[in-house]
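Researcher: I'm preparing a figure for a lab meeting and need a structural model of a single chain. I don't have an experimental structure, so a prediction will have to do for now. The sequence is pasted below. Please return the structure as C-alpha cells so I can convert it later.
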Amino acid sequence: MEIWEALSVFGGLVALLMVISIPLQLLPLLVIMPISYIGFFLAFKSIFSYSENTPTKTAQTAPTPDNGRFDA
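Model: Understood. Here is the structure written out cell by cell.
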C-alpha cells in the first residue's frame, strides 16, 4: 500500500469523525482536531523527512538506517 493511499484512508476516517460530531454540537471536535493535526504532522514528517545522518563524501562513517519514525 502506498503512503498516499494510507494517508487518504486516514483523512477519510478523520472526515467521517468530523461529520459524526456535527449532531453532537461539535464538542468532540475538541478531541478530534488536535489528534488529527498531530497524525497528519507525523505522517508529513515521515514522508518528507530529511535524514540528518546522510553521509557526505568526506565522512567515512556508516549511515544509520532511517526507519521513518519521528521521535519528539
